[in-house]
User: Fold these one by one.
Assistant:
Number 1:
Amino acid sequence: MNRKSLYRYAILSGISCISLSTSCFAQEVEEGASEPTVATDEIIVTAQRRAQIATDVPISLTTFDSEDIDRQNIKGLDDYFAKSPNVSFISTGARDRKEISIRGVTNQLSTEANPRTSTFGFYIDDFNVSTGTVNPEIVDIERIEVLRGPQGTYFGRNAIGGAINISTNQANPSVYEGEASIAYSSFNTIDTHAVFNAPLVEDVVGLRMVGRYQHSDGNIENINPIGGGNNADYYYGKASLRITPSYDLTLDITGTYTREDVGMREGVPSGVLGDTALAVVFPGIENPQADPDGVGFFPENTDKVNFNRPQSIGTEFYYVTGRAVWERENFTVTSVTGYIHSDQFLEGDIDGSSKDYYYEQKPIERESFSQEVRVQSPDNGSALSWTFGGMYAEDKGELNQFTFTGADNPFGLPADLAITSTLSNGKSESWALFAQGEYEFTDRLSLTLGGRFTHEKVTVTQFNTSNGEINGQVDDSASFDNFSPRATLAYELGYRTNVYVTASRGFKAGGVQINPNLDDTSYDPETLWNYELGFKTQAFDGRLLLNAAAFHMVWSDLQTAFAQAEVDGDDITFFSGIENAASASSTGVEIDATYRIIPGLQIGGAIGYLDAKFDEYENSFVNGEIVDLSGFRMPNSPEWTLSAFGEYDVTLSDDVDAFFRAEWTYRDEIYSSKEALVYDIWPYRVPSFDVVNLRAGFSWQNFSAQVYAENLLDEKYFTNAYEKAFAGGLYVQPSVRNFGARVTVTF
């Protein structure tokens, strides 16, 4: 066992020892007095579009409230996914370039797909923002809910793997309040935000404004003075109004703006060439190492690249939403209207080499509009509760991609020649009707039935060129219909102790192939059946919170992507498209628990086990060949995901409180792509890793401060291998150790 492992286990053992000794102390106290009652605040969630106690909701979910977000320094999905069982992500070089995996369900299609078809519902205040980002801003948040398994009834056609439901703090027409915060951490990272709330008309109109700015010098240096590093600037602003013109009507209007500018993709060379480099630059050569250009390979090199052109990568988006809630005696009507516009950009050096091989320009523009109306029964204790509603959504995307030759291109072509280009316009229109009802047969036994009918039409127009000549054209559309039901039987074993069994169907729309050279002009929808047995309890006077679920999911027509590049003289042809695997399955177990040993001291953790595989996939296209992937483990599906924590709160004086927290997370190895299943080599096969974090803070009146050490033991890991086109080979985004401090003032 190495020194790092000894430190890691020493920390974890320390948490356990503290917990054990404190528990023994508590028992000694109890010998002379009655057992104290330790109250635990009820966790309220809106996973079923109404406020409910989490233990009463028959859905496998993980929640993070505002205190969790603050104490755990949650800044994005990287942070809260690591603590959710059977949930993971892979990164391809930037904040918004992350792919989510829940129970083995991952979006195996490109984030640049046009239009973009998500695998998860990503909602902020009832509005789906997945068109603009997969990693929205985490500031002034009331609660984050990670729902596992298909959530089609309430979260839409593409929530086949699950949903992330975020609730922000709304404007309050009755109080003046706010906060200001500033943090400083490794790599000269400055992160500051401010929140201000004010009543414009007392008890009738409230205004809330939020602003955030973040700058970082980045953790990767470009040793080439011509190129740039991965310094980053991040801007965020939000303004919201709450209007309550009458006792039964509430209107929320919100506008949000976000921009991220990054100097380059966050990655260093792995020393392995990818498929495109092998086909385009080194045809016939079996996987030579890419030229390190004086920087070396990971893990010896974690912070240097040698790019000969500056890069610019980032995303800019804004969205506007309006939500109206009309509460009547016998029903509640909720209307949610939203519009989001995003611009994603990537330009500059793409080959990752010190030689000027190729560069590109790739702007992607997307916009989405949706309107949902739902009617719900009141929470009046009736045996029957119900919801029904309808939704219309329209998504549009425009992609303009140009790849240019550099002065050192390997084929001796003139510099600045557009050797490939893609001009694409995509659109999807969908409407849906949904309903769900719950009936309580007795005080303990209830049945929930629901379903969603969806109609969707996808249209794509695209032109592909090679060396200025049009070599492909797509102008096609496809339509799909689907009904996804859900049935849940729940039984209350005791106070706040419930068991449930669920059968639910998920649906992900099909689409049009964007490559004109393919025989199939469209690909089929993806469907999934989820069978789940769950148990939830809040026991021992509220000191123990325990959630457990076992599930089995069966896919039909699983959508996967493929790509291949070929060279014929001066012509470079790219083959890419989407194919359907015949069938796949995912079986697993999820357990998470929190135990409050005595007031102020709690421990907890989560365990996720997953067996996700292709059951039948005989004709998969991998690197230009047809291979049989039947029985292979699915990409981005770690077998084990684990986490643990210990937290101690202590009162130092009448108005001074402090906390101490230790965290450990573990993710098993994954295969990053279908190619990984065939080659089974590093870095396609991403190794397992674990991370230890320490945090401490105190609060005094309206002032609080926190210090933290993230990845304390400096674990050298990466989450994914991605291809830096052509000669660049495979790159990995290296881990970092981060020390920081933050101060916050509230009023």
Note: The chain has two domains: 1-36, 37-746.
Number 2:
Amino acid sequence: MSDRDNIMTILRFGNTTSQMTDKISDLVPRTAQLQDLFDTYPNGVRHGTTFMIGSFQGEAGSSLQLNIDIHNPNFMRGQDWATGAGVGGITKILMEGRGWTLKEVSAHYQTFLGIEHTPPPENPIKPELARQPEPIPIQQPEQVSAKKVYNLSTPFDAEYSYTDEDGVVLVSVRKYVETDSEGNTKKQFRQFMDGRMGLPEPRPLYNIPNILASDKVIWAEGEKCADALTSMGFAATTTIGGAGMLSDRVADKFDFSPLNGKDVVLWPDNDKAGHDLAVLVERLAKAAGAKSTVMLRAPFGKPEKWDAADALDEQFDVHRFIRQSESKVKKPIHLLDDSLNISKYFVGNAPEQQYLIGNTIPLAVPVIFAAAGDSGKGMMTLDLAMKVASGESMQSSFGGIVSTHGDAIILSAEDDKDEMHRRIERMDPLCKREHYPNNLKILPLPNLGGVFPIMQKIDTSYVMGEEFGRIYDQILEMQNLALLVIDPMASFVHADVNADPAAGAAFMGMLAQISTETGATVMVNHHMAKIKDNDPVTTPEQARNLIRGTSAIVDGVRCAFSVWNVEEKTGRQRCKDLQVTYSRNAVFDGAVVKSNGPANRDIRHFIRNPNTGLLEDRSDDIRASNSQMSEAVRQRLQHMQDFIAMMEREGNAITKGGAGDGAFDAIATSASGEPCVIALKEARETTIKNTITALQEAGRVNTYRLTQGGTKKWLGVTGGMLSTGEYEARTARENL
């Protein structure tokens, strides 16, 4: 006799209870048995592989203990310590805990037992006496009998409502958190329909109204995570019961149809169980007609079970994380539907431009950093990478504050490990790098097998280099990458990007792909043409035109930053104003010379730090110095005007230059204690003459002759005694 025939016989002709109990224990999946145990006793406590409850009546306690290790031969067996009796099997538990009969337990598990409602066979001896079996009620395996009604007044910690598209509640999930005497907590979830424990058929997705109204849906594990994502502006959902209820066996009981036509992002908990559940959900979403699916992977270093709710609590950049992960998946292009139509593809408010360096260098774009040789490009990008990894908002060498932090990578083709180490030590003598919250990986390629091409030409095509491709696969696994530095460009391109516009365009396109897929700024160090001594750079436009290569290089990037030498005269003056020693290649200007979006295009002023060799942005100091100098000039002009007026009033008018009555000599020999005299005594003769010239040009001072034939030009203030004819000489000096 087959197992199915044996089961039919047991049900119809009253074979022993023990036989039926054994069949139920053997054929019903142990995960289903566990769920029924937990549903029957919501007051139970789970400690490892032991489940504890006060008694079959369901009160809290530990007298009744059961083994719930699904791999143990003694599964669902245990001891009632209050009575001393042994306990065994899910059948006993359901009969005692829910008040069911054996037939009701069998009907509950009829799917697993293979029971069909067929007429009983005729009694071959006395057909008229054949006993008809009682009808077996049709019940789904996971549903709880209506006989069990739970006390809805029991305090719960959270409640989540699953609704239909009109907002009508289909089922409510309540979360209970219990704490034992040792402070350990346990979470339990119970599903209620109309005041009774149970589940609807089919089982709905969470947050249906919102996901139906959105083109992109994020699935997360658990209602708390879905709500966290919803609070951040996403259309988020989950599946009821998590991994404990969704499996291949019962997948057909879940309704994934709301995901039809949607782009679905899956965010599992950071553990194997979460990943396995997400894989199943992804398969079911595709089967339901999802347009695309993307599986997120927790960033490196995140703890086990890390999820969306944890991300919200730690103020993690969720938007960037999701955008970065989505960019790594090549999605099919469908031009024949309306998915790429402007009305569908560009919906809602446009995202704000994010910056690596505030309002200067954008995030997630390719950037050219061009400068002349020996300008310190490598030092500036190393400094930037260290500040990105440090997690601290510090002033960058490019002007502006480092506003995005994360992992950074430098591909260095020219500097070996020892040189890089020396540079790092100069900039970080206290070894703060040992405590960076993010990764900074510097690849000195001379020590790692040499340089490899990022792009190379094969026949007539430009392709990604094979070795870089292997490294790039690893780069794509870095979920928190913010900066990739390529230093210099010429070493990594096996094509003539300086002369061939097609090569330049291909390489820039490859950089754009890398920045989009990684979500990182890709900064490429490049060279500028040599500046002629007689034709110095004074504007960002001039600097842009000096970037080497075809126009495709600059045109192909979102942002270009250049640094150029200043004239020696200007450099010396800046060093003097800042009270630093002037040296060649120590004074530079720089600016954003190309940007496809808003950017600070102000010219920055750099002075090389003699200790680190790093170009430091001293723009604010230089502006302050200029401001101070301007104030000093204004004061000097006023003092000179006051001195001229004083001498005019005293009848001792002076000339601009010359011995004796010239301004410089008059100031030097004056015994007056007036502030103007004191202030001017330290000035050089040239400064005195230049100051008087400035006063004359401003119309504040004029020259006068005392007689028609006089040869000397006497200085007087506008509106003073000389101008009105009231002046009277009081010395024996020649006034004619």
Note: Residues 1-15, 117-153, 732-736 have pLDDT under 50 and may be disordered.
Number 3:
Amino acid sequence: MEVITIEFRIQLVGLIVVLCYIIFNIDDVIWEIVHLIKKRRVNSEADRVSMESLEAIPSKLLAVIVAAWNEDSVLEPMIENMLASAHYPESMYYVFLGVYPNDDATVAVAKRLERKYKNVHMVMNVHAGPTCKADNINNVIAFIKQFEADRGWRFSAIIVHDSEDVVHPYEFKVANFLLERYDALQFPVFPLQRMPTLKNFFRGMTSGTYADEFAQNHFRIMGMRDTMSAIVPSAGTGFVISHRILDEYENEPLFPEDNLTEDYKLSLILAEKGFHVHYVLEKVQRLLDNSTVKWDYIATRSIFPATFKKAVQQKTRWIYGITMQSITFTDIFKPSELSFAGRYTLYRDWKAKIVNLLVLPGYLVFIYFIVSSFVSLPIMYPVSTFAWRACILLTTIMIFHQITRVIAIQHIYGFRSVVFACLLPPLMPIRLIWGNIINLSATLCAWKQLFFGTQKGNKKKKVAWHKTNHEFLEEHVLHRYHRNVGDVLLEKGYLDSDTLQVILDQSLKEGCRLGDALLQSGAVTEEQLMTAVASSQHRLFVKNISSFTCDIADDFDKEWLEQSLVYPLLKTKNGYVMAETNFTQADVYENLEFEGIEIHTVYTTKTKILDSIHGTDTVKGYLNIDFITELLMQDKITWQQAVLALDNQDFTPDILGYMGLKPKEATIQMLPGIEAGAAFAAAQEAAATTD
């Protein structure tokens, strides 16, 4: 009887590993090829979001939810950074902080934020914490519904964020635009990491693996899912849910409370119900400190674990929640409305609990196969045999995966990150292997939890919140994610980077303001400049002063208005809303404020102010300003909301309803003698003539 040698057994095990790896990975290669073919058939640029289109529609009410448990160290800087950087009217988005009665430190922070900002509200959970994250969010949603009922408002959508997120300045603006077409949106999530160096290489190893994986998943794979009309899963943050979905869940909780990955499970449920979750992969230009222009993706930046233990803990929750709670093998084939692409993505997510176990053995086989081909070692498989061809295919798949990862990392983090992630050392980079070790460990823990955990046999049991502690970024790092005038001018396409740099150098040389230099050079118009200035300073820009048809200008001396370059738009309870320019002196309202008159300001152009003072601006609005003023005096809308409604009244006769601000009992009130339809048509015709 022939003896089975150890070498034969090793070869057999190696072949089994190779075949399993190929079986579970070859489909990814095919999927990539099919995606490339389909992408070439459609004009993807047609769906790109332009800055012009973002400005074309008025702002709608948005609700931002941040669920917090033991987040006192990061919650305040996160919220303050979001409020300071968001390019969206502050009166059109409200932030709701979900906290627990037994989390005194976080409650204290939430109360402080609520007192400081009018658009921030603390929502106390009815249960002691920690419950699950889904329960926290559902509790906040219930509060939002009551908030809407009390005010007669309607939020266009809710946006879910984590308490350690750096929210992109244009996220709300893009969401406001895309909600016209989609039921839900998922923005990319890219981990924050310090610039990699040899000095911090090992210290940033674990967090770096998150950057590599999210770059590949959120730059390539999520985009492929969207292009192929497959299931786009929620990432748990940067997730936008339209009110149309909330209406579907009128009397039941939105997020499932029996799942560790409630966000992923919800996206599956929405897909089965026929709701379309769109993946948003958009980018804008910005000017760096070194005068170079960089493409910046409109994405959520988040801080991820930096230690092996915390990373394994977090990924265990992900793997268990997605592959063992949310998806069963039968779910892939059961009767449903899902397309083939949708079913495939379910399979792709499900197989992670198997693939993660094969990666490291696959690497060992791969390393030995390559080394034995060049070094004097026993040949693993003879040339041209089936096993040899299988190893060649395995090698090809691994190289393919590495190439796609290199492309993704280079797009998101730059070439230096590529070197540290994929090329150090060559062939078998340390960071890649470390990431696979983390995934292997987390998968083993998930399997252990499946067979021996507390959730076994009780799928309906509510799960506790397994959270990961975080630290927030320093102020100087956060400043990189804010926008200045130059950034806005580039992003809006008003001028190119070369022209901007020339004028910047000129303004520094002559000691004048950038705005003056831009106007003198003729590079931008006055309106373009003031729009950019207003955006960078997070102030409203009024484009249609003539829409504010009222007599309050008579309250002021005409000569003073002209000299001061200001114009009154609205009367409030305690003062006025005044239009000014960037060239208006800061102390112009000193005497008025001394008399106790409250002044709110918006931006416009010098030309529009002078035309309004002299009565030469003849385009008028059609909404009854007294009606808007009454709502303002009754505190049913804010002064900013009143300004936005009047400035955008030519968009639709029911502008208050469109923005989500119309009280239930209110009806459109036009100027006397003007019907809504005629007024709207006239406004549209006037706008077209002006253009």
Note: DSSP finds 28 helices and 14 strands in the chain.
